[in-house]
Write a structure and sequence with these properties.
9-stranded mixed sheet; globular; Extracellular Endonuclease, Chain A; 9 helices; two-stranded antiparallel sheet; 21% strand; alpha+beta
Length: 336
């Protein structure tokens, strides 16, 4: 009888190898080395078993901001050919490898209000995305650590964010070699609004998901952004006068974000995320998918509506993107 492995056991966690930088084709390394700048790296926690402060799980690594009590980035691998159905773990756990005290959220934070669910525990790398391969249960269960989560308003976490996760899994099955690398997390700013029930915690207004994939022998990356700003205001979780701001000194906010709605997902140029967060998502031999208008709205993620749309368009009126959709009939994502 095979030995049952406890996904949350300290010995198991310390033996975990983490995210695989060479996962797509072995020769090109999509590594974590330069994602954070030097100032951000100082906010990584002290981790038992990793001198660099990286929390490694199975096919998942978390760069965790101990100051904000949220991940900078959760980085993970998906094999689209090896999907397995795995039940959810019963609850989220604190990671016992973190030596710094009181830098992780817990159930106490999410139970500050008892008469309604103010925030859900928002998986960054989800159990569904890591449910693949021979270690599917181990991988899926290890996503249930608070360091791999962010407080998300309920309609975002259980609705749109969940659909985006499913959308990414579907796209993984359609890439050349079925393997992708994913980077995801909250887009944090020092001026993020304070949570009204715990003013020591600042609420992230935006979330990103970046995907590296193979297409016709070339590596590409593309990214998506969504917001919980309006819903957080509606639920009175942040001050009503909070104003979302996707501008930096070197970047002008594109028009689609002028009235950014929590029901919207945008495929964006990666430099939007870099300019907002200070992260670096540049890798050798990886080409960025260009979104010409700096904000392509994905209204029907995880659903194939392109067939109906194609019937209503004529070649004379179709844009370049529309023409690509008519040709593929598969996705509303802008492709290379």
């Amino acid at each position: 009888m095979p030995k049952v492995i406890d996904p949350f056991d300290l010995k198991t966690l310390k033996a975990a190898k983490g995210y695989d930088a060479g996962f797509i084709n072995k020769k090109d390394k999509i590594d974590l080395t330069n994602i954070l700048n030097d100032a951000q790296k100082k906010h990584l926690p002290k981790v038992d078993g990793d001198r660099n402060g990286i929390l490694k799980y199975t096919m998942l690594s978390v760069l965790y901001d101990k100051t904000r009590k949220m991940p900078f980035v959760s980085a993970y691998n998906i094999d689209g050919t090896a999907k397995v159905a795995v039940a959810r773990a019963s609850s989220f756990k604190c990671d016992q490898r973190i030596l710094d005290e009181d830098v992780q959220l817990s159930d106490t934070f999410y139970d500050l209000v008892t008469d309604f669910t103010e925030f859900e525990i928002g998986h960054m790398a989800s159990h569904n995305e890591l449910s693949w391969g021979k270690n599917s249960k181990l991988q899926a269960f290890q996503t249930f650590h608070f360091v791999n989560s962010v407080p998300q308003v309920e309609r975002l976490n259980s609705g749109l964010w969940s659909k985006l996760e499913s959308y990414v899994i579907k796209e993984a099955a359609d890439t050349d070699n079925k393997r992708i690398c994913v980077f995801t997390g909250p887009m944090m700013k020092d001026r993020d609004p304070k949570y009204v029930y715990d003013k020591s915690f600042r609420v992230a207004l935006f979330f990103f998901k970046l995907v590296v994939f193979a297409h016709k022998g070339q590596l590409y990356c593309t990214a998506f952004v969504m917001s919980q700003y309006k819903r957080a205001v509606e639920l009175k979780l942040i001050p009503g006068n909070t104003k979302p701001d996707l501008r930096t000194r070197s970047f002008v906010r594109p028009e689609p974000f002028a009235d950014y709605n929590h029901k919207d997902v945008f495929q964006v140029n990666i430099d939007l995320i870099e300019n907002y967060t200070g992260y670096n998502f540049s890798w050798k031999n990886v080409t960025r998918v260009k979104v010409e208008d700096n904000g392509h709205k994905l209204q029907e993620i995880a659903e194939d509506k392109t067939a109906e749309r194609s019937k209503s368009m004529s070649p004379a009126t179709a844009t370049a993107t529309d023409a690509l959709l008519m040709e593929t009939g598969r996705t509303n994502m802008i492709l290379p």
